[in-house]
Amino acid sequence: MAGTNVVYRVMTVEDIPMVQLVERKCFTTPWSRNIFVSEVTRNDNAIYVVALAGERIVGYAGIWIILDEGHITNIAVDPSFQRQGIGQGLMDVLTMAAVKRGVVAMTLEVRVSNSGAQALYTKLGFEPNGIRKEYYQDDKEDALIMWRELGAEWTNAGN
Questions:
Q1: pTM of the predicted model as reported, rounded to 2 decimal places
Q2: Does the annotation count 109 as an active-site position?
Q3: Can you list the domains of the chain with their CATH numbers?
Q4: Which one is catalytic: 109, 135, 136, 149?
Q5: Which residues pair with 66 in a beta bridge?
Q6: Which of 77, 81, 90, 111: disulfide with 61, CB 3.0–4.6 Å?
Q7: Pairwise CA distance, residues 35 & 56, whole Å
């Protein structure tokens, strides 16, 4: 499992070029460099983390903290590193950071066709809670809204 040789840490501006490589491999409408720079340097309500295999960034994830809720903005793992536990590792690191900021519940949107991501989120305790019609700009695909209440195992771990 990749979790043993993958290091997770907070994203820096210097990470953005490698993050964008992962972003372009995973999404048809990738975020611009300026969006990432703004999120990392100016958004006090955002937390972004990266996963490194050696010197290479192989995944990243972000969350916005809104009061006591966390909204996952994006998560991506380089396709050649998927199904090795990195996505779960990113989500765990992000969840711990969010709990330390007072988050008690988390939400995200995922393509209705992305059964692999939905399986991971379900494994992590997220439950379906609605549909956002034509959410994705590139092809107007619907998004499944998923929520997760953070139980005592997380809220106690954040103390």
A1: 0.88
A2: yes
A3: 2-155 (3.40.630.30)
A4: 109
A5: 69
A6: 90
A7: 21
pLDDT tens, residue order, the chain (159 aa):
344 589 999 999 999 999 999 999 998 888 999 999 999 999 999 999 999 999 999 999 999 999 999 999 999 999 999 989 999 999 999 999 999 999 999 999 999 999 988 999 999 999 999 999 988 878 888 999 999 998 766 655 555
**Upper half-sphere CA count for residue 120 (Cβ side, 13 Å):** 19
Cα–Cα distance measured from residue 126 to residue 101, given in angstroms and rounded to the nearest whole number: 20
| Contact predicate 146/127, CB 8 Å | yes
Q: What number of H helices and E strands is found in the chain?
A: 5, 7
User: Looking at 121, 134, 135, 141, which residue is catalytic?
Assistant: 121
Task: Answer for the pair 62, 23: CB distance below 8 angstroms, yes or no.
Answer: no
Q: Which two tokens stand for residue 41?
A: 């340097």
